Amino acid sequence: MTAAETASDAPAAAQAGGPATGRGRLGPPPWLALFFLLPALLFLGIYVVYPILFSVYRSLWDAPGTEFVGLDNYVRMFTRADTFTALRNNVIWIAVAPAVVTVAGLIFAVLTERIRWSTAFKIVVFMPMAISFLASGVIFRLVFEQDPERGLANAVITTVQDTVAPTGAYPDARPREQVPLEETSGGGYRLTDPVSPGDAVAVPLVGVSPDDVPGDPEPARTAETEQGAVTGTVWMDFTRGGGGEEGVADPSETGLPALRIEAVRDGEVVATAATASDGTFALTGLEGEGYTLRLAASNFSEPYNGLTWLGPTLITPSIIAAYLWVWAGFAMVLIAAGLSAIPREALEAARVDGATEWQVFRRVTVPLLSPVLMVVFVTLMIYVLKIFDLVFVIAPGSVRADANVLALEMWQVSFGINDQGLGSALAVFLLVLVVPAMIFQIRRFRREET
Fold first, then answer.
1. Whole-angstrom Cα distance, residue 332 to residue 334?
2. Which residue from 180, 202, 305, 356 has the highest number of Cβ atoms inside 10 Å of its Cβ?
3. Domain of 265?
4. What are the start and end residues of every segment in region (Disordered) (predicted)?
């Protein structure tokens, strides 16, 4: 039999169900595939499908689960102020967090292609992904502490602030009520009566702890008059153990050194001096009369304690910053994989045509990366809708209502006030918000596969 005859007989044998067809199809039978998929299907049914269906069912009953209330829980959900606060914060999260993390990941991914120590950089940026959200929340709860000695963020801010505008040496100092000193608009003090060359004034202050006096203070000494100068003494008018005379420099009272004194006339500072260790000073080079003696505001400037990161105003931006720290590595890795797949010929062609690096990045790199950027953005959006851990750990109890999100509200209602009906309604509402983003993501994956 020739080869041609053999080939012509093969279809007939197949139609007759002969040996050439085997079982009539390629691959295992459907029941065998179903057998291997059964464990996964059971797992999904128990841990995904059943909880969803039960949540929908439970949302139609009251808090104890004994009375059917229909859609009352959904109506009550949208009449609570806490729900609208949580929904508002979720909108802020969706509008800010995915975009910020995606942009940060894009910047980091581009940097890793241009620096020599890219591997170490990737490890450092991606390392937070290896830390649980609970641990990350604890870390940033400490970072955002108000006390600069404990909170890293305020420690950095106060260090810069003290470098630019140092804290005054006597932030708590103040005059006695009967002393003719009045507070100026800038925060300092001035004598109510004008002074002239040849005058000697006494400026007693209180409210200063002896341990906080800078330098090596000496017992206060009454200043002597000088021709053509205004002299005086600034001292701590307080005697330990009681006693002494108010407004008089007693032997046991010390001067206040390094305190800036100014002579002002017609709104301008014409002479300055600093008090000595015994509190004395001398403003020289003065002519005429009608000077105002002023204790500069810089002497009394309060120490800057930083920002209230965990207060009602900044609590949500602070938590978003922690979210950026955790997820920037995830975005960087995905975007870096997309960058490595971009044809280098397209980039080189743009450079040959005279495009700058910024134009190459904006008009070539970003458009080619748009599918990857969209995947990262939508994935982060899904996770943002379900954010819970960072908000629960970072936000103090006093401002948790201001940082509330839907997932946290669902937990507080279900296990805080123990209203399982309303909590289930919140869970269903959160699911309804997440499902469109998931469908969009799945459809994108399918389009890319085809």
1. 6
2. 202
3. 174-299
4. 1-21
Judgement on whether residues 345 and 275 belong to the same structural domain of the protein: no
In order along its 450 residues, the chain shows pLDDT tens digits of 454 444 445 444 444 444 444 455 676 788 888 888 889 989 989 998 999 999 999 999 998 888 999 999 999 999 999 999 999 999 999 999 999 999 999 999 998 888 888 888 889 999 998 888 899 999 999 999 999 889 999 999 998 888 887 888 888 888 887 788 888 887 889 998 899 999 999 899 988 888 788 888 899 988 888 888 999 999 988 877 666 778 788 888 889 999 999 999 888 899 999 999 999 999 998 888 889 999 998 888 888 888 999 999 999 999 999 999 999 999 999 999 999 888 888 888 988 888 888 898 889 989 999 989 999 999 999 999 989 999 999 999 899 999 999 999 999 999 988 899 999 999 999 999 988 888 888 887 787 766
Of 254, 269, 299, the domain-final residue: 299
- Kindly list the strands in the beta sheet with 174-175, ordered across the sheet, starting from the edge strand earlier in the chain: 174-175, 200-206, 230-236, 280-283
Using the Cα atoms of residue 44, residue 47, residue 48 and residue 54 in order, give the sign of their dihedral.
Answer: positive
Strands 200-206 and 230-236: parallel
Cα separation, 192 vs 98, in Å, equals 59
The amino acid sitting at 168 is G
- Is the domain of 205 the same as that of 144? no
Please check whether residue 40 lies inside any domain of the structure: no
Residues composing the chain: 450
Task: Answer whether 220's CB lies under 8 Å from 254's CB.
Answer: yes
Tokens of residue 89, six digits = 């914060």
Query: Please, is 118 exposed, middle or buried when counting C-beta atoms within 10 Å of its C-beta (0-12, 13-18, 19+)?
Result: middle
What Rg, from alpha-carbon coordinates, does the chain have? Answer: 37
Nearest to 182 by CA among 167, 199, 203: 203
Residue type, 220: A
What is the reported pTM?
0.77
* Residues in CB range of 352: below 8 A, 6 or more apart: none
Q: Which of 262, 281, 276, 291 is nearest to 200 (CA)?
A: 281
| DSSP SS3 for 195 | strand
